[in-house]
Amino acid sequence: MNISRFFGSTNREAMRQVRLALGPDALVVSSQRVNGGVEILAADPTQIEQGNGSEHEAPDAMTAADVMRQMGDLRGALESRMDALMWGNQLKQSSTAASLFQSLLASGFSTALLRAMLRHLPAELSMRAAIEWVRSELVRSLPVLSSEDALWESGLILALVGPTGVG
Asked: In what order do the strands lie in the sheet with 3-8?
């Protein structure tokens, strides 16, 4: 079973994302409030039914591979839950990290990227210094042109991606 994580500012927004991605019959595994909104873990019920056929076998006929797969699924769910708890504690300890997380999330950055990046945010930074730190981390991690002149090279194909109306 593949479990997907969805985040929205409200429960309604998160459930809308679940229905769009997995359909109206999505199986909600968990729902919890996190800093900045609601996080929902959900799975596609058609994947569960198709599976590997072991759902139609008697429970005592499960193979060792089935048991190991299920244990792996449980371990992944537990690790995700522990990560969320640790992340919540980190945000509670640093008001700068929490404010920065909410601000960047509202700007369209993904929760996964923000968690990975802000996990390494140096302690005791002012908000202005934290924003500069995030900027330098993004420049270091993402391909960035050193000069805008490269945008005007002859024969260059360029795609602008983003929400309608912001370009």
From this structure: 3-8, 37-43, 27-34
